[in-house]
């Protein structure tokens, strides 16, 4: 089966509503549909539940802040679970370093375990995570 691009895959999975809303607000839909490869550590929708709506609304009103948060979840290049095991840090598209570690077979990005690894896309790979990474 032909794999779909990062955006279409995220839409089809239905677990990344707020993340996709942010990509749309930042005008990134086209970029992550056509460019790449990228590795996205994608927070599932439940990651946003503990955050008050007002805080999320404020983030969407401050696009620079929102861009900083989103870019902290994206790395240029395609990194599968195997690749992640071989790296201790990756540099995000925003220029920050993400720390990686393995514990009991699970890979952690910062202190967040990867829930669903290696979601293949035509222009990269998605690893779903249960928390929002904050630079």
From TrEMBL:
Residues 3-133 form the FAS1 domain. One of its GO terms (biological process) is cell adhesion. It holds the Pfam family Fasciclin. One of its GO terms (cellular component) is extracellular matrix. GO terms for molecular function: cell adhesion molecule binding. It comes from the Archaea. Coiled coil: none annotated. This is Beta-Ig-H3/fasciclin. It comes from Methanohalophilus portucalensis FDF-1.
